[in-house]
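Re-run with default settings, no changes from the original entry. Doing this only to confirm the output is reproducible before filing.
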Amino acid sequence: MPSTSSSTLTSTTTITTANVNNNNNNNGNVTEKVGDLRIRFWYSVEHILALNHYQPLFDILMSSLDSKPYDISFTSILQHLPVDLGHLARPLMKIFLKHDLFNDFFRLVCQQYISSSNETSTLFRNQSMASKLMHEMMKFCGSEYLISTLKPVIDLVYAEKKRCEIDPTKLNQGENLEENTRNFAVYAELAFVRVCESSGSCPPLLKNVLNVLREVVNEKYPNKPDISRLAVSSFIIMRFFAAAILNPTQYGLKRKAPDPDVSRTLVLISKILQRLANCVVTQQPLITKEPWLSSVLERFFDDGHRAEMVEFFDSISINNYHLMKSTSSQNRKPEVLKSGLMVEKRGNGSRRRSIKDVFSQKRRFVTLTQKELSWKKEKNNSQNDVEQKGVIPLSEITSVTQVDSQKSSFRVATSHQEIHFQAVNNTDMTDWMILLITHQRRHLFFHNRPCGKSKNMHHHIDIEKELETLHSLLFENIESIYKWKESVEMFDIKKKY
C-alpha cells in the first residue's frame, strides 16, 4: 500500500555580517557574528505509483458518467462513505477536470441533488457533494480572480483602520455614529462595485461551471430565472466573495489576521453583500433582525444596485451573455450619479479667513459623474446655456473630508486646489461624500488593477496524486465497503433493477 510519511527537522544556522575595513590586510573584509537562528521545518514524503497502477480505479470513475441511473454509479455511492465530503470532492474535481469531463460530472451530481430538493430558499446552501465540488472548483481556478477583485478593498480597510461600528450598543464613548456610517458605506460600496464589475475577470472555466449549474436549475424550475440566480448567488457570493471578506487570511488576501476593529468592519461589509444578494435573487422586501443596519442597507436597496447585481449574476452564468445583452441594458447605468444645488466656497488652505471669503461664496449646480465632478452657475430657466465654473476629474482628487467648522460642508482637495461645498443638510452632505470617495477610489482601483493572461489550470493537476488520494480514502474505509457488499449480496440485484 503506497503511503505518506511526515518528518520534522530542526536546524541551527549562524548569521554573520561583512564589514569593509580598508586598514586591514585581508582584503578589507571583516566578518562579525550577529547571532544564531534556529529553524524548524516539516516535510512529507508521498509514495505515488505510476498511472497504470490506478487504471482500474480510473476506469470505474469514468464509467460513472454513463451509469443509468446515476444513483447506482460508483461516484454516487462514494458520497455515502463516512468521510468529509470535501476530502472526496477535491480529488474527484481534479480528476474529471484533467480530462475535460468535470462539467458532465458536475451536471449529473447537480441533477441528483436538485431532484431530491424541494425547498428553493435553501437551494445548494446545505452540505452536499454538489456544493463541495463547486466550492473546490472556485478555490482551484478562482483564487487569482478573487484576489484581483477584493484585495484592493481589503488592503484599504487594513491600512486606514477607520472605525465602522454602527451598532449603537457597541459604540465607544464620544464616537461619531455619522462618521462611522459614512466610513462603512464607502467600504461596502467599494466591495459591491468591485464584485459587480468583475465579470470580465471571471475565469472562463468557472463561468462554464456556473452555466451548467444554471441550466440544471432551469430544467427543474423553467421560466423562473430568480431561482437559478439564487443558485449562482449561493456559491459566488455566499461561499466565495462574502466568505473571503470574512476570512482574508484563509483565502490568500492577507497574511496577517485582522485586528478586532478591522475584523468587525469586514463582518459588516460581508453582511451587506449577503443581504443584498438575498433580496435581489428572491425579490423579497428588505427585512433585517438588526435595525441599526437598515440605514446603510437602504442605500443599496434601489433599482440601480439591484440591476447591477442581476447583470453580474447573468454575465458570469450565461454563455455569450455579452452578445445577448441589449443596447438598453448596456446603457442602463446612468451617467449622472448625483446632482443638485450647493454653495461653493474656495478653500483658503493655511491663509486666515477674511471678509473676502464671505463674498466668494456662490450657489452652484453641482454634477457628479463616474469620471468627474463639475459645477456651473445656478440653473436659470431663462438661460439656455449655463456657464460652467469648474471641473475636477475624479482621478485628480486626493481627499474628500468633512469641514467641522462649517455646517454641512465638505472639502474636495487635489494636488493644486481645494474647493469647499456646503450641502443642503448633513444627510445630503453624507451622500455626496460617500459617492465622491467611492468613485474616486474605484477610478484609482481601475487604473491600478493587475493584468495578465489566465493560466491553464489543467497543467497544475497531478492525476496520479489525485488518484492515490482517492485510493487511500477507499482503503481507509474498506470495512464500510465490505459491509455494503455483504448487504447487496442479500438481495436479488436483477429483480431490484
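Residues 18 and 449 are 41 Å apart (CA to CA). The chain has 19 helices and nine strands.
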